[in-house]
Each structure stands twice: as C-alpha cells, then as structure tokens.
Amino acid sequence: MNERLNFACDYNQGAHPAILQRMLENNLVKSGVYGDDAFSESARAKIRTACRAPEADVWFLVGGTQTNAAVLDSVLRPFEGVISADTGHICIHEAGAIERGGHKVLALPGKAGKISAADIRACWDTWYGDGNRSHVVKPGAVYLSLPTEVGTLYSLAELEAISSVCREKGLCLYVDGARLAYSLACPENDVTLPDLARLCDVFYIGGTKCGSLLGEALVFPKHDTVPDFFSIIKQHGAVLAKGFVAGLQFDTLFTDNLYGEIGRTAIAAAERIRQALRSKGYTLAFDAPTNQIFVLLDDAALASLSEKVEMSFWDKPDAEHTTMRFVTSWATTEEEVDRLIELL
Amino acid sequence: MNERLNFACDYNQGAHPAILQRMLENNLVKSGVYGDDAFSESARAKIRTACRAPEADVWFLVGGTQTNAAVLDSVLRPFEGVISADTGHICIHEAGAIERGGHKVLALPGKAGKISAADIRACWDTWYGDGNRSHVVKPGAVYLSLPTEVGTLYSLAELEAISSVCREKGLCLYVDGARLAYSLACPENDVTLPDLARLCDVFYIGGTKCGSLLGEALVFPKHDTVPDFFSIIKQHGAVLAKGFVAGLQFDTLFTDNLYGEIGRTAIAAAERIRQALRSKGYTLAFDAPTNQIFVLLDDAALASLSEKVEMSFWDKPDAEHTTMRFVTSWATTEEEVDRLIELL
Amino acid sequence: MNERLNFACDYNQGAHPAILQRMLENNLVKSGVYGDDAFSESARAKIRTACRAPEADVWFLVGGTQTNAAVLDSVLRPFEGVISADTGHICIHEAGAIERGGHKVLALPGKAGKISAADIRACWDTWYGDGNRSHVVKPGAVYLSLPTEVGTLYSLAELEAISSVCREKGLCLYVDGARLAYSLACPENDVTLPDLARLCDVFYIGGTKCGSLLGEALVFPKHDTVPDFFSIIKQHGAVLAKGFVAGLQFDTLFTDNLYGEIGRTAIAAAERIRQALRSKGYTLAFDAPTNQIFVLLDDAALASLSEKVEMSFWDKPDAEHTTMRFVTSWATTEEEVDRLIELL
Amino acid sequence: MNERLNFACDYNQGAHPAILQRMLENNLVKSGVYGDDAFSESARAKIRTACRAPEADVWFLVGGTQTNAAVLDSVLRPFEGVISADTGHICIHEAGAIERGGHKVLALPGKAGKISAADIRACWDTWYGDGNRSHVVKPGAVYLSLPTEVGTLYSLAELEAISSVCREKGLCLYVDGARLAYSLACPENDVTLPDLARLCDVFYIGGTKCGSLLGEALVFPKHDTVPDFFSIIKQHGAVLAKGFVAGLQFDTLFTDNLYGEIGRTAIAAAERIRQALRSKGYTLAFDAPTNQIFVLLDDAALASLSEKVEMSFWDKPDAEHTTMRFVTSWATTEEEVDRLIELL
Q1: Which residues of D touch C95 (CB under 8 A)?
Q2: Alpha carbon distance A204, A64 (integer Å)
Q3: Does pTM surpass 0.95?
Q4: Domains defined for chain C, CATH in brackets
Q5: Between chain C's N and C termini, which has fewer beta carbons within 10 Å?
Q6: Which one of A92, A104, A313 has the shortest CB-CB distance to D96?
Q7: Model confidence over D83-102: pLDDT tens digits?
Q8: Contact call for residues C237 and C59 (beta carbons, < 8 A)
C-alpha cells in the first residue's frame, strides 16, 4: 500500500480492533439504556480500581466539549469563572461553550500550555483579592489539560502544588484528559490515575482520541460531588441513549490494560519521529514528550513535506516559518513511521 | 435460546448488522474529522436525494436532546419560545434543555400527542395577540414529533395546515423525527421525506432509535437557513470528533433503502402484536399505528405479564389500571413476536 | 380640576410626597454607593424589626422582574424549575426572564390566581415522583404572589400548608409582594410580615407599586441563605449604583408606618368602588379584596365608561363581555372616587 | 461646613437640583408606564435632535451593567463574542454579566484604557482568520468606553478608524458613555453626539454618573436596528415600571443644555485639581483629561492625604506606591476644590 502518509490527527480512524470485535460479539444483546447497563457497570468498576478510588462516580459522555461544559456548569455558581491557560481547549476551541453556560474563562498566559500554582494564586489575588471582589467574576475552578494541548506534561510536584492552592482557595480542580493515554504511557510522566483521583475533584479519561469510536470517562473521585449529575448531563444533551456503546468501549479499554498498550504504541512511534527530526537537524517546538510532535519548518521544507505527508497546521511564528504538527496514535504502524522518517 | 422477552425499547441493542459490517470494513480508513469526510458527504447526498431537496444542509448530531436544543437555540431570538404539545419530548423529557438555552416551551394540551393548526393559531392569539405582547414570550417556532411520543401520526393534510399557519405567522416549523423510520414505513402514513422538506423549515431523521449506534440527521431544506450552524453545534458540545462514525451509519441507512426496510420490519412486528392484543380483548391506548403499542392492563394482567416480558411503564390512568408500552424495532424477530403472542 | 379620571394603574404617578420631600432634603448628602450607605442601613434595620427577623438579609432592587430572576437564579440549580400559578407574573408577563436564566416555570392552573399545598404536592409527584425523574425538570422552588395578580389573598392557613409541603420536599418558598402594602392593609388579610419571615425562604416587599419611585425590598429571613448574593445581582445588572435612592425611599416607607398608611388609603378607596359597583348591579370578577377591582362589562357599558375613565383591559371571557380593571393607590383621592362612583 | 472632603465618586449624591425640582412639580401627573409617556417622548425628541439622528430609537434603562448586557445580547448571535479593552467595564466590573448572557468577552490589552482599529483587526485575524474559525468564538461586536474607565478619550480620527474596521468586518460598534457628559465638555475632545450617531451602531448617554438619580439613554441611530428591543429589555428585567422617572430626568438634562453645563462644571473642577497636583510635583497616571484624576502617591503622602479627603483606590503599581483616584461631578463646588488644593 503506497497511499499518502497521514499524521494529521489521532481521531481520524475508527476504533481499536479489540473494541470493534467486542461490539460485534455483543451487538444483539439487549441492555439497559442511558448508561444503566452491565457493560457500563463493569467499565466503572475497572476504572475505580485503576484509579484506586472505590467510591468514585464514573460517567461516560460522548465528547470533550460537552464534558467540559457539563462539569463546569455543575461545579460553578452563576457568577463564578474557571481559570485556564490561554491555550486551554475551553479557552479557544469550543466556540464559547463555557460562556454559553454563563461562566467566564479566566485566561492566564501559559508556558508551553501550562499554568502553575503561583499563576493560580496570583489570578485569585488579582481578581478576588481586593475590595472590588463582589463586582468581579469569582474564580471557582481550575481547568488543566493533561497532556496539554501542546503535548506537554504536568509533573506530580506541579500537580500537587496546584491541588494544594485549589484546596486552600476552595477552587474545584478539573483535569481534561482527552489524550490521557499518551501521558500515562510516557516515560517522562510521573502522574498516575490514582494521583489524579487523589489530587483532583474531577477529571476525565479520554476515549475519542485514545482508541474508541467516541466517549470520555468522567471521574469524580468522591461520591456525590455533584448530586443529580445525570439530570445535568441530560439537560446538556450529553446523555447517550445507547449508553452501552460507550460503556462497552471503556470496558474493553480497561481490560488487560489495553489503554496502556494504546498509549505505548503511540509514544513509541512519536519518539522515533522526534529522534529522526532531531538527528536531521529540525527544530522542535515545545518540549513535548507525548504523541504530538511540533516542528518548525521553513517555507521550502513545508512545501516539500506537505506534498508527501498530511500534517496539521499549528501556527506561524514569523513570515518564513510555520509550526506543523505530527500526531501518532494507537493505529500508527511501524511502517508508517519508517516511511515518514525516509521522507524527512 | 429462551431468555426473557424484552419489548421495552427500540434503542437497547447495537446497530443493524449492515452498519456494523461496514464499520468493520472501513475501520482503518483515515478520514476527515468533525463531519468533513467522504462517508458523511455521501450520506448527505443520499439524504438530499431522498428528500428531493438538492440544496439542503444536512448535519449529523449524536442524539435527540442535543439536536433539539441546538436547532431551537439557532432559530429563536432570546425572548422567543417554542410551541409544543404538552407530551412533547422537549416539554417533559429533556430535563429543561430548551429552557437552559433561554427559551420557554409554550405547552399546549395535545390530543393523542398531537396539536393542530387551530391550536397553534389560538396560542399565537393568546400569547401574542393583544396589547401586552411585548411583555410576553413571543412564539417563534413550532415543535412537532413524527411519529409522536405516543406513536400517532400527523396526516399530510394536518401537516400542510400547520405549515401554512407557521408561514403566515413567521414561526419556524421543526419536526423531531426520532422514530421517523417507523412513520415512513407505516401504511397509515401519507407524509414522505419530500413532504417534510417542502413543509418544514428543519427536521431530523432519527438514527439512534432506527438502527444506528447513535446519530440523527438534521435537515435544513433551504441552504444556509442558519449561517454558521457548525459553530452553534460546536458551542453546544454537539459535534462528534469522529464525525465519520455517524456519517458512515447514515450512508448505510440510505443505501438500498435500508432505512425503509428497518421501518417495515418493526411495523410488521408491531401490527402482529396489535392484532393479537385486539383479538384477545385487550384495550389499546391511543390510535397508534407505528412501532409503539400502548396497552391498558389491570393489576392482575400486569403482574402476570411482567413476569415473562419486559415492557415499559407509561402511565397510571386509575388506581386499578396501568398503561404499558411494547416497542418493536429493526431487530425484533418473528420468533420473539410469536413468543410474546403466546404469552398474552 | 376636571381632567379625565384614571384608574388604570398603581404605578403611573411619582412617589408619596413624604418620600420626595426626604429626597429633596438629602439630595446633596454624600453617601456610600451600591447599597452600602446609611439610608439603606437604616431601612434594613426597620424592615428587620417589622418582620421580627433580626438576622434577615435585606437587599434593595429596582423592579420586580429583575428581583424574581435574580432570586430564582440564586436558589435553583441548573436543571431545577419553579412552580407557579399559570397567572403568575413570572409565568406570563416577564418575557421569559426566568427561562433566560435557564429555568422552567412549572405552571399550574390557578384558582383565582392561587395554588394550594395540594397542587404543589401533586406537581411534585407528577414531575418528580416516578422512575423518569432524572429526565425531567426537578421542582426546586415555589413562587406565590401576595396579593396575587388578580388581587386575591392567601390566608395564613393556606400559606402555612404551602410552607409545610415546601419544607418537606426541599422547595424554596418565594413570595412576590409587588403589592404587599395592599394585602397588609386589607381587613380580610391575616398574613403579617413576621408570618412571611417565618414561613418563606425569601420574599419581597414591593415599593414601585406601593408609593416609591422604584424599588423592591428583598428579604431573606435567614442570614446568608445565598452566599455572595451581591455578586449575583451585580451579574444580573440589578445593582443600583445610587443605592441610597432606593434605601432612602424604603427608610421613609418604614418610618411611622407610612407603608401601612399607603395601603389603607388604597384599600379604603377600592372598597368604596367595589360597594358602589355591587350596589349598581355590576358583576365583579374574582373575590379580590385588595386594591385591584375587576368588573365584567357588556359592550355598551364598556363603551360608555371608557369615554370617561381610564381603566385597564384584563380579558375577554366571551364575545359580548370584557373584564376591566380599576386600580387604586396611595395617591387615589376621595374626590376621584366620588367622581368615579357618579359615573358608574 | 467643615465636613471631610469627598472626591471618591461621581455617583454618591442625588440628582442635579433642576431634575429634582421638575420631579417635584410633576409628581402627581398620571403618566403612561414602561417608558410610554410624554416625558420620555419629549426626552427622545431632544436626544434625536442633539444627535442629529432623526430616526434614532432611544430607550431609557436604569444602569450601565444591564444596558451593556441587554445591548450585547441583542446584537450578538449565541457563538459570538465582544472585543473589549482588558480594562473595559464589561470585562472586569460586571461580575460576568456578559458571559451570563452566553457571550465571551475577547479582552485585548488596552493602552490607557483604549484599543485601536489595528488591535481590532489583529484580534479578528487571530480569532477568526484561519481554518479553525468555526471552532472559536466569532467576534461580533466591539465595546468601547468614552471616556474610558481611566478617563482617557478616543479622538475622532481614532473612532473613525475603528468604525471603519467594524463596518468592514461586520462588527457592531457599541460605545458605553457612562460618563459621556465629561468627554463632551472636555476641551481636548473632538467627538460629538452626531459623530457617535454617525459612527456607532449603538451607544448610551450616561445619566447615573452625570447628574440624574439613575438612568442611561440608549441610542440606536438607525431605526429598528434590533426589532422587539422592548421584549429584550423586559426579559432582562431592565424595564423601569415608572419609566417616566427616567424620561423626565433625561428631558431635563437635554433642556437648555443642562447636560453640557454638568460636564463643564466637573471638567473645570478637575482641571484645577490637575494643575494644582502638577504644580506641587505630583505624578499623574494616564493622560486623562476628563473628570477622573489619577495620582501616584507614595506611602507617606497616601497616609497623610487619606486622613483629610476621601479618594478611591485604583491600583498598586509597586510596593511603595499607590494610584488613587479623585473624581469631580456636576455637584463639585469651587469651595471643595479650594479646600482640596490647600491640602495637597
């Protein structure tokens, strides 16, 4: 097969074959609906175990934007806002979904996609530290992405410091793990699922970008953090009628650690590409060790490479250069990586 | 296999096998994302043809509640409301999704789930016909379900009359076709897809309850009825990242008229059950010719039948009787119907 | 003076002269702003005393619609709705302000503008009593008007029963007292301010329709019922920059029981009109003992009376009759009443 | 009179005496309600004349935050946002009122409270200029304050350039004139009311901070820019029942150019204070020629001055210095200015 290489994205193919196989085998099983089914129950139990959070409430939603909106609507009071890096998905790529729910996104300048405990403390002081506090939006939650939108990681120490300031100030800490498989599988990473369950108030384990057809597993480590959460996601139009379709996929992802394997496949491929780029003298943008690779290309290199491989545009730092992104996934083959490296 | 019969629901199994087969065959194809892919394009073309609406905009959303909310938010101004039968899905079973978007549902007492052109005209006059009109919610749209939540049908004449009053008053006419396959396949039905395209401003062709894993095909017969509609569904968290998963399913449903076959299977099964119920002296509630069968049971019959077959509770008209619902689908087998009839 | 009589409304003149005089005397006093001033503090103290609610939080807002919206937004969770009579101001005459805040108004058919404890209990059972409860809007509050929009009163026994069911079900009980002066002054009334403070979670004492230029005094009998309430009204645009303008007016209304005097003036005038109407054989609509008088007029009487006196249109029960409304206020003079009676 | 000097604010006293006198004279006049009265009609006519905008729609709202929210809700589609300087009132001091309406505030770093046509163009390009545009908030309006929150002015040339880019991009240009009297009266200003009517889509002429008890006059130069605008403000709880209270005040402000006189009084006082500060070696912050004076004080000067005069805190640029604000108004007397200058 000699079709054009495509490294544009980690959600442009179907599901990991093990998932599809399981769907096929269970296609005619009659289940409960709206998430009240045996597949979902089994998936919840496995996720609780993986997170060492035996009392956790686990919900399966379809996609990231609706998950973010439902979570933040449920934990914020009307006049409260959410602190986020200015590169955060909720800040720029959700067409204003958080604002539609009535909440301001308090954007902080991130460093390589990240904000720090000190940034959060300073934001609190600026917005809420003086006599005008009742006239301003009150910070009510902190939104982090792990890995971030530019593929970087929070260390355990960083996350612990952030969690600590959140608890001090009464801020709900929420982690968007759309690509969590790729941080968990990353050698540089030291934040585990039990760490997330211990340090966050709520987080989600991404499925859509990590091998399933769709679906995100939302985890509230503490039971009943948000009473009546089902009604909230129903009101958001975020309840999947055939909830078992998401449940079965997560049950498969958390069987025999398929989720870990998916991450490792993508990271190994990404690491080979990074090393090839470095050895051939390319400049990488960000210190991003996960499944997204950002490379600075001059116009000639961009033109030449674009002919042979599909990448995605990231930004244009100056008139002669462009940052392009390669993304690997559970489905990236060694042969695809070989072919890409040849072309570089 | 002698497991317990289950007629509770038309969305408690996977997808029609033809859909799953096609997903399997195309699982590793790399597609565009967010609905911009070849499967979705092909499905759109087939739907336009089926609706005889060559300029229609067609969108694939995940489920009914989010489709209803996105549509109504996009066609109503802030102070406008939507007229609906008081049994309408938006009125009672969406946890306030329409109100969350800021819009009042102007509920009218329905007759067997239906409202008439005269009801709509009277509602307009009541709410908006006198000198206080600027203090009240302005009716801005009409919501119908076809078939209705209780399985009944609007005739073509009824729909034409409703469309006419809507155009006279400037009301957007929106039809929720969550179970549209089952009206289209019904001998009593005289409303076709081209009729819907001609008479409505927007309608959706249900997938979730009609054989797909998920997905509703939203049709605006007139191009650009709502500019920037993608941004609206993005803001609603209603964009499926792997849009091709919905597109491929609708492409299959509209190939070789699978959608029609699915409807006919369910209707044939429902009709057999209805005849058996009638011949055995049961009382049917509503004059519902589609895939939902509502039967009035006294306490003894309810207890006896509940042991052997799963139905769904509908309502309790008096202390000794209960209305229960049987639902058939694309997946209902003749053998299941035989077994049910034996039990009645 | 022989100008045309005007009984259309109780908010079509300025303020009670005592208020305007006090404004004049204090016009150049430099005060704190946004409600943090000596006039407002004094008014709050007097209202707490009048309500026998020493810990009450008292806020001054500009008008009824914004007060209703701010209160209900602050006490309801996103998927919760508010129970109201279908004649309730929030239900029909606020252009969807409650829905704009995301909340459904659960309208119950009122009797002469009133709903009962039994109605509320039945509504809870219907909406929230069965297995579909998580798919529907949860009743979260009850809205009453006292006097109602048609001038009727809740008795203390009725209010106690309603309060009791609200506490049993966890519903916030909110009373809209836009015309409260006119119930308090009414001989038929047995609900006092301390009763309201004891039985409600929140209520407001109307100013706009009871002698001030503008302003409603919102009372939460229990301190900190809604933390950060200032931010909520700020976000609603409901904070008056010159808060002292409202505070001074309420301070005057609650000095030497001016509020009581205002009510008595209007009720005495209304009672004289009612007696004249009855004695002349007119049919009164509703059993309304407060400052609104609803009278059924045939077309001839309507035409004749409309020439000489301004009333307001209420409704048209049949083709030949119209219900018209006379309203009295603090400003209605005996001479005006004499002249009206002559014309009847 | 030797009470403590107070230069904290321009809205901490009642109304200009001419207004109060007129209220007194007309207190018992029976008027139409909700803004449909002779005072309001007269005020509208005078404002149209002053703006040379004979077809303008003019509305009287109570305060700035609710005006901003109502305007932006009415001109923006759900997924659109409003561009503002990061010091804009809507951006920081309205507790998230714009976000509550569902709209993102796209904050740009201002220079002395101002943004430029080039800033707006760059913002459009960043947010909406590339292939991701349908995933982001679309800029739909531009919000300016005149004078700005830090007392600075847009020149006519600047405003014309901004208006031009807005018309090119289809952005609604909205000017918040909470303190407009003080720019109009300023010698440095070259932007007149007719200029605003020519260059903006909508703007408001502030009353609350410019001599009235309350009220802002909102001007849409083009008739029916927003159809059904009354319903929008009703839904926002922003309709004053006794609309004539606002109408009468604006009618007085625009009689014999009282609005101009109010501005000149405040500007003359401010200019005397600025000259005194400069001549005594104080450092002024911002180049602000209107009625707000920002002065940088070291700790000693702050302590000393705070004992004798009430100012308002602005910010703290470093550990040893504080920026404080003096504000003058229509009510500032020469004697107060004399006493302040002595104290400096």
Answers
A1: 231-232, 234-235
A2: 9
A3: yes
A4: 5-12+263-343 (3.90.1150.10), 17-253 (3.40.640.10)
A5: N
A6: A104
A7: 999 999 999 999 999 999 99
A8: no
